[in-house]
Amino acid sequence: MTVAPSPDDLWLRNFRPAPDAAVRLACFPHAGGSASFYFPMAGALTPDVDVFAVQYPGRQDRRSEPVVTEIGVLADEVADRLAARADGRPLALFGHSMGSLVAFEVADRLQDRGTPVSALIVSGRRAPHLYRGDDIRTRTDEGVVAELRELSGTDSGLLGDEEIIRMILPAVRGDYQAVETYLRTTPARLTCPILALVGDSDPRVEPDDVRAWADHTTAGFDLKILPGGHFYLLREQAAVLASVRERLRTLPVAR
Predict the structure, then answer these.
(1) pTM of this structure
(2) Does pLDDT of 130 surpass 80?
(3) Which residues pair with 94 in a beta bridge?
(4) Strands of 194-199's sheet, edge to edge?
């Protein structure tokens, strides 16, 4: 018998449950991305870390749902579900590109509720108060695909398949709508440390823009620049995992 997933399961995927792990890590995908992007990370960190991956509406098994086009709405939904799953273990958040913004807003919401996260790790994204007036959401389909190719985040063979393009473009457009209309005008001043990662040849993110994440925490900031472009973390997976493990080792363990 097939059991339908609960509403929480639609948002949070626990590919490799590790209930005995000392810490939890919630991972947030990039624009157009899905929870399965973090399947390798979950496998690599288990059993030391209990990894959850966020599944946004409008993709994979949630493809029939409307894409959410506001970062704040995504953050509200995920914060509610992470708060409901709180079990006393420290919680860290990891986000890549758009996922960095969603993770940041989730951290801010949980802090406001009195249950702050223990660490925020952001990747491939300038600080949330820096606005650049991007307009990818208004481009033709060909223009959006050209952007994806430049960022090298999607296999070029898949981008030559018209059926695949038609399938992913609604989610990509909706996500770019969310990212390009988002602006944080005031620092959040999180009480957890922030670790920022970026590729040294990212065509969309300058290291100085990533350093500006330091303005959003009172608990310490570190920047690591790794070889590669916007999706540097695919080729530099070992270095990324080492950085994540190093940061998570510093978290206080619940007693």
Answers:
(1) 0.92
(2) yes
(3) 27, 121
(4) 12-13, 49-54, 23-28, 91-96, 119-123, 194-199, 221-226
